[in-house]
Design brief:
cell inner membrane; Amino acid/polyamine transporter I; single chain; 4 strands; cell membrane; transmembrane; globular; two-stranded antiparallel sheet; mainly alpha
Length: about 500
Amino acid sequence: MNEIVNAINGVIWSPALIYLCLGVGLYFSLRTRFLQLRHIKEMVRLMFDGKSTDAGVSSFQALAMTLAGRVGTGNIAGVATAITFGGPGALFWMWMVAFLGASSAFVESTLGQVYKEKINGEYRGGPAFYIEKGLGMKWYAWTFAIATIFACGVLLPGVQANSIGASLKTAFDIDPNVTAAGLALLLGFIIFGGVKRIASFASTVVPFMALGYIIVACVIIALNISALPGVILLIWKSAFGMDAGFGAILGLAIMWGVKRGVYSNEAGQGTGPHASSAAAVSHPAKQGLVQAFSVYIDTLFVCSATGFMLLITGLYNVQGPDGAALYTGIAGIAAGPGYVQTAMESMMPGFGSMFVAIALFFFAFTTIVAYYYIAETNIAYINRKMNRPWLTFLLKIALMAATVYGTVKTADLAWGLGDIGVGLMAWLNIVAILLLQKTAFTCLKDYEAQQAQGLDPVFHPEKLGIKNADYWMGKRSEDNLEREKSGHPFEPDPDRKIS
């Protein structure tokens, strides 16, 4: 099974996808004049702007739902495996794909907002919606929807569950079979509760878990601050093949850095637009900017905290393409959460390993919940014209089964299956957002023009020549009434200024 999975990954994660992820991010960054730098202040402001409605969630809740998917085992185990197979330089390429990927995240999440729909009283959107409406290619939209249901419902949950099982076994000696049963019960409670329960759960747990982990990692880094300059130099030299010990794996540093970077921050993968489309905002670019910032939170903050901690303590391994050891700092432990638990335990005896296990539980569990929401949104897309409620029920059972299976299987198999899911979605989505880029850039230009006039931007697709934005055109009146009742109308007075 491992050989089959590795062979498939060899095709999907060919150099073409690696360079496509980096190249598209660079192209979008240039086209938007590096919005990820120009609009940082606006991104932070928008995170806390707006409120939820009966149909949609707030900007912050949408951000939390997205981070629930982004901040997961990739931030702990993913960083460890990237360093193991790509050397310390892989961390630099994770940063690079995050920085450039922020522009890709803006494009895809803006498109998700433009072409979202209101289905059964809830906002739904994502690549399947903008592919069909923006490109007029229903077969392509269905291909993405089916691939995403399969990836998020079957392939990806096992990665998160496997790391939970491994970390709890290391810290508390809990049998993975017991962990699997517990995860299935908890998942059932959350996913049978609907999108509102998912949003509430994510907005409560995600900020707490991410902040707590970053603080503890920063404490460890601060206690060893004298080693940080040397670590940064090692990352820089390894990233460009200038380090004597890791120069031979330059190509692997790029490949593993990009692969694990995309897995962690999901920029361009097509997962982010699902949650961002659920936000109740007055202009698509608002949520696009918020989602661009979420990439920074995921990779530049959380992944960096993990990477610095491993490299400062020296508790990591690096192996060459032939499996030969290039550096051994933690013999006898497989690449994954065990590295991070050992590193933190060495700094905080009696506490470190348990803390990582608890943090990873929350990281990974919220990611599994986010996967369910993404897969369910694509079922909602398929079910728009013909109601097939059994599909949603089948998804819930499949996701719970995949979680149980992943918990008790080997890490290599779980990660291999996850990489297939990420790669399939990335290929399909990146091509789509390249073809639809003009719409996203038109939205950004319109947003900036209204901002320059001191207005709170409002989206009118008909004025911009954007077609098939059904929610914004055909359903504007209905949603305005809902917003007016709550005291937050979409349509501001012409002279209304930004407070």
